[in-house]
Amino acid sequence: MFLGLDLGTSGLRALLVDMAGLPVASEAHAYGVSHPHPGWSEQDPAHWVAAVDTVMTKLAAEHADAMAQVRGIGVSGHMHGATLLDDKGEVLRPCILWNDTRSHEEAALLDGIDGVRQLSGNIVFPGFTAPKLMWVKRNEPEVFAKIAKVLLPAAYMNFFLTAGFFADMSDSAGTSWLDVGQRAWSDTLLAAGEMQASQMPTLVEGSEVGGTLRGELAKRWGMSDSVVVVGGAGDNAAAACGVGAMREGAGFVSLGTSGVLLTGRDGYAPLPESAVHTFCHAVPGQWYQMGVILAATDSLNWLSRVTGAAPADLSRELGDTITGPERLRFLPYLSGERTPHNDSRIRGAFLNIDVAHDRKAMTQAVMEGVAFALRDSAEALKASGAQLDNLLAIGGGAASRFWVQTIATLLDLPLELPQAGDFGAALGAARLAMVGSGAGSVEDIMARPAVAETIEPVAALRGAYDDAYAAYRESYPAVRGL
């Protein structure tokens, strides 16, 4: 047996799989996010520890035989979070999360230093880890002075599980401290970010063993004292492992809280100025690129809160088939935007509101706005030379055929819907544990899921959606100037 832990923004999920990589059992536990000030987003790592103990204890109680057979654990985690530890391994302050924008000034300062983009392969976004530490130094100097280690959320979970300080390449690539091409901490980038190499965890590949499960935890959860913990992965790299998006051209569109358009790359080909993320993949010798929008299903959830209608009910009103773009236009910049704008201050908007518009029109506009933003990411990826040949549609928003068909038409690409089942970040983390435990090679284990259905673009509507996208593109500079 093998175990994947997916440490998400809103909760933790544990997935047990067998030697064939098939799910055996799953448990989840939710926790919240704190927003003490506008633009701030934090979590107490103690909530992660409580969550993993809860799910593991429940698995041990209900699946004792399977837990006793676990050979390896992999952890997927939400990226970029700054978890700060003192020299005793104690947490100094709440973790500053990926969607926290307080360090936009520090990000701009770092991004302007010669060589930073070239070495890191990326723009320094406010959500990345390095500018967060610069903010801490300037605003919480008493905390900064005590920092012995900076760990990403997945690396903190590795530390809890093993008492060792190690992190994988895919997660570490989102810090602005890693030389992404060389897959190593960069002294130049660390110095630019006012950090030291001693404060970094040891780097391992995602499928490489980093440590062994602590004896007291193994005993508590009914597991062997020889269970290994591999490097794991950042959440998007883990999701790519879960759906087999490993090599050039293989990728996915993810409609989760944020929106992601990701493709595997066989080599390192950064294009920072496009605001495309170029990161190490979770396995040796591979990279991936992705465009990221900060509010995908989060936009629909926002509309749900405003209207009092459940997201599924809003989606149901639209049906399954698109008939053409809505003139009402939505800009999904509820928390700022990454690709392609790198703008933490821009905010969302409805444009062209008419007295005849109703809730259904607003829902369509929200879905189209997210789809337009993903088209922005596709154009940025193409500019870097990335192929977009074979894309899956995953995430909660992919349950809406209307939404998927809108995206397929805007990208002019068929989107494949995988058969129902467990896949994604938790499965990807378990697959990394399988490789690290010797259950098979990356090629053997990181297979793509069976496809249930292919959603084709609507060719007759492509021109209308292209025109609507062109109008959407003109909206950003106009709104930004207000």
Automatic annotation (TrEMBL):
InterPro entries: ATPase_NBD (IPR043129), Carb_kinase_FGGY (IPR000577), Carb_kinase_FGGY_CS (IPR018483), FGGY_C (IPR018485), FGGY_Carb_Kinase (IPR050406), FGGY_N (IPR018484), Xylulokinase (IPR006000)
Class of enzymatic activity (EC top level): transferase
Domain Carbohydrate kinase FGGY C-terminal: 252-435
Gene3D superfamilies for the chain: 3.30.420.40
Nucleotide-binding recorded as keyword: yes
Keywords of this entry: ATP-binding, Carbohydrate metabolism, Kinase, Nucleotide-binding, Transferase, Xylose metabolism
Catalytic activity, reaction form: D-xylulose + ATP = D-xylulose 5-phosphate + ADP + H(+)
Protein name per the record: Xylulose kinase
